[in-house]
Design brief:
Blueprint: E1 16-23, E2 29-36, H1 39-48, E3 52-58, H2 69-84, H3 89-99, H4 103-117, H5 122-127, H6 135-147, H7 150-205, H8 213-249, H9 251-263, H10 268-288, H11 293-304, H12 307-321, H13 326-333, H14 338-350, H15 353-408
Antiparallel strand pairs: 1-2, 1-3
Helix pairs in contact: 2-3, 2-7, 3-4, 6-7, 7-8, 7-10, 7-15, 8-9, 8-15, 9-10, 10-11, 10-15, 11-12, 12-13, 13-14, 14-15
Length: about 400
């Protein structure tokens, strides 16, 4: 009776980068780096090259910075460029990983490289790190691997991430500027109320005359600040922390804020255009990669970055699944302008939906650029007026008693 025994294939050891020093056959001091599964492997490899190792150290990645969207975007562009030039995939990971300035990115890429080298597909290796590679990224890479056009898909993905990152940066800059100015104005006002106004109060108390109304109001506010400054600052920072924490963790809060941002009087139009640009760019990229429309819509809603458009995408996907055309489903969602649905209709009729969606994305990205520029020009005089009224009002209120005393004298 024949017996068979099956043993699981041992997993390949995870490779690390080792820095080494040694002497060659002529006794000359040499040094370098080598990626291997252990120190013994490094010793054997270098001994075959006639190098006697004297020092060896495993390269540490503990001091790396946080991996950002910009790092992933740069890696995608570099990988796409090298694969387009014919550089093998594993070698491309070596070049990008070792040459990156962020040690955390280097470690991430070398870990992914090790997975790919042991036989894991590239998209499955990416899926092990969902914090950095979302479903859209992995789906496009998987489609590229299956169709044998990974270099082209990586190029599309890099372009997509660059444009998306640019839009996010523009929106962030448009929102950050007025918030920062108002924050500085609040701090300056608090300093005046806590330190400057009490000094003027001591001077005015020696006048023995009745103070003007605006000066009395400012002094009353100053007394409140001096007495309860810790409560004011504590409540303010506590409210900001609670708001940001709720916005990140609470789905109800996210949906409420997304609706409010779209309806904001000045910034709402910019945010809506940026959301539509991301939505159409994502769908165009996935559809051009050969991903079926229903499957593409799975990633589109989340990529839009707004709960209103996420709900609309779910509704559109349900209707498209039952046989409704994309144009009609988008019209029923009531969140897209007529121009968008008309361009989508032309794309469906002509069989060039990805090209039309790309043109819509280009149009709205240009609209966002112009809107952010106009918004910056508009906000500067408004902020100057607000600061002038606040700071100027305080100065005038403090100097009114001095002017009154001068007229009496």
């Amino acid at each position: 009776m024949a017996t068979t025994s099956s043993r699981a294939k041992p997993a390949a050891p995870r490779e690390n980068i080792y820095t080494w020093e040694g002497k060659d056959k002529q006794g000359k001091l040499v040094r370098g780096e080598l990626r291997a599964g252990g120190e013994s492997v490094v010793n054997v490899t270098l001994r075959r090259q006639g190098i006697l190792v004297t020092k060896m150290k495993k390269k540490s990645y503990s001091s790396g910075k946080k991996i950002t969207d910009k790092d992933i975007c740069l890696f995608t562009r570099q990988l796409a460029t090298m694969m387009k030039a014919g550089v093998p995939l594993l070698q491309s990971f070596d070049i990008v990983g070792r040459g990156h300035s962020n040690a955390s990115v280097s470690k991430l890429l070398l870990d992914i490289r090790s997975d790919v080298e042991t036989g894991t597909s590239l998209n499955q290796a990416f899926r092990k790190y969902p914090l950095y590679f979302d479903a859209l990224f992995c789906n496009l890479v998987g489609a590229g691997e299956q169709a044998g056009i990974l270099d082209d898909l990586l190029n599309r993905l890099a372009t997509y991430k660059e444009k998306t990152l640019a839009i996010k940066a523009k929106i962030k800059s448009a929102l950050t500027y007025p918030i920062a100015i108002l924050g500085v104005a609040f701090i300056v006002t608090a300093v005046i109320m806590i330190f400057v106004v009490p000094a003027f109060k001591e001077v005015f108390s020696s006048f023995g005359a009745e103070l003007p109304g605006p000066t009395l109001v400012v002094m009353a506010i100053s007394e409140f600040f001096v007495s309860y400054w810790y409560i004011i600052f504590g409540a303010l920072f506590g409210a900001i922390y609670f708001f940001m924490h709720s916005w990140r963790r609470s789905l109800t809060m996210q949906r409420f804020m997304d609706r409010m941002l779209l309806q904001a009087p000045i910034f709402g139009d910019v945010i809506r255009k940026a959301t539509i640009a991301r939505w159409t760019r994502t769908l165009a990229t996935m559809f051009a990669a050969g991903v079926p429309l229903v499957e593409a819509l799975d990633s589109v809603g989340g990529a839009a970055g707004n709960a209103v458009y996420l709900d609309a995408t779910i509704k559109i996907q349900t209707e498209v699944t039952t046989g409704t055309s994309l144009t009609v489903a988008m019209q029923n969602a009531n969140v897209f302008p007529n121009m968008v649905t008309q361009m989508v209709s032309i794309g469906e009729e002509s069989g060039s939906l990805d090209a039309m969606l790309g043109k819509v994305a280009d149009f709205y990205e240009e609209e966002v650029d112009e809107a952010v520029g106009a918004l910056s020009s508009l906000m500067e005089p408004i902020i100057m007026v607000v600061l002038g009224v606040i700071i100027g009002g305080l100065v005038v209120a403090l100097y009114l008693p001095i002017f009154k005393l001068g007229s009496v004298v």
